[in-house]
Amino acid sequence: MTDTAPAKVALVTGANKGLGHETARQLAALGHTVLLTARDPALGEAAAAGIDGDVRFLRLDVTDADSVRAVGEHVAEHHGGLDLLVNNAGVTGIPRGTARTLDELTVEDLTSVLDTNFTGVFAVTQALLPALRKASGRVINVTSSLATFERVATGAAQRPDLLPYCASKAAMNMASVFYAGALAESGVTVYAVSPGFVATDLNNFTGPKSVEEGAAVIVRYATADAATLPDRRFLTETGTIPW
Ligand SMILES: NC(=O)c1ccc[n+]([C@@H]2O[C@H](COP(=O)([O-])OP(=O)(O)OC[C@H]3O[C@@H](n4cnc5c(N)ncnc54)[C@H](OP(=O)(O)O)[C@@H]3O)[C@@H](O)[C@H]2O)c1
C-alpha cells in the first residue's frame, strides 16, 4: 500500500496543437491522467503519443452532439469523476491573411464561431457536469482579453472581422460566471483564463509569448488551491482584469 494520492483526471479540448496540446503536456508532467481530445483522430492520436505520461486520446468535436455525448459517457464509465475540464478548443473565423470589412461579415461567419467557442463550451460542460460534480472538479474556460468591452472599444473594434471572436469569448465569460455561481455548492470551481497573446496557428504565430508560457498560465490556475485564487473569475497572467 502506498500513500501516493491518486492521479487527477483532466480533459482538454482542442488539444492536438497549440495551447491545448501544451496544456495537456504540462498537466501530464504534473502526474495527471490526461484525456487529450481532438476532432481529427489522426492528429489527436499523434499528439497524445508525443507526450510522456498517462495521456489518452478521445475524439471530440465540440460542435458535434454525438461526439460530445460519447465523451460524457466515456468519462462516466471509465473514470467516474473528472477533476479538471479545460475548454480550450477555439476558432477566430478569420481565414489566414484576410481582413474583412463589417459589410462583408455574414450570419454564417458569426454562427460558426459561436458554435465552437460558446455553444461548444456549453455542450461539453453540460455533458461532463455529473463527472465534475462527483470530483468537485474545476472548469477552466480559455478566454481572451479581447472579450473585454474596454479592450475592444479601445482597439479591437477597428478590426470588424474580430466581432464574432470577441462576442463568442464575452459570451463564454458570461457562461463562466453563471456556472461558477450555480456550481459553487457542489465544490466545482469555474474560471475564465486568458493566456495572453501566444504564437499559435490561431494568429499565424504572431503572438509574442510562447505556447509554454501561455499554457503555464492555464495550468497555474487549473491546479491552484481555490482558496489562493482571487475572488474574480476572469484571470490573466498578472491577476484579474475587468470583464
Ligand atoms: N493564441 C492566442 O494568443 C490566444 C489568446 C487568447 C485566447 N486563446 C484561446 O486559446 C484557445 C486555443 O487556441 P490556440 O491559440 O492554441 O489556437 P490553435 O493552435 O489554432 O488551436 C485551436 C484548437 O482548437 C481546435 N478546434 C477548433 N474547432 C474545434 C472543434 N469544433 N472541436 C474540437 N476542437 C476544435 C483545433 O483543432 P483543429 O486542429 O482540428 O482545427 C485546435 O486543436 C482558443 O480558445 C483561443 O481562442 C488564444
Q: Could you please describe the fold and organization of this structure?
A:
Helix content is 42%, strand content 14%. The protein is an alpha/beta fold. Strands 3-2-1-4-5-6-7-8 form an 8-stranded mixed beta sheet, with helices on both faces. It has helices at 18-29, 41-49, 65-78, 107-135, 149-153, 163-183, 211-223; strands spanning 9-12, 33-38, 55-59, 84-87, 138-142, 189-193, 234-236, 239-240. It has one domain (9-240): NAD(P)-binding Rossmann-like Domain (Rossmann fold, 3-Layer(aba) Sandwich), CATH 3.40.50. The chain is built from 7 helices and 8 strands; from the N terminus they run βαβαβαβαβααβαββ. The mean pLDDT is 94. It binds NADP nicotinamide-adenine-dinucleotide phosphate. NADP nicotinamide-adenine-dinucleotide phosphate binds at residues 13-14, 16-20, 38-40, 60-63, 88-91, 116, 120, 142, 144, 194-195, 197-198, 200-203, 207.
Q: Which descriptors would you attach to this protein?
A:
single chain, 243 residues, alpha/beta, Rossmann fold, 8-stranded mixed beta sheet, 8 strands, 42% helix, 14% strand, globular, binds NADP nicotinamide-adenine-dinucleotide phosphate, SDR_fam
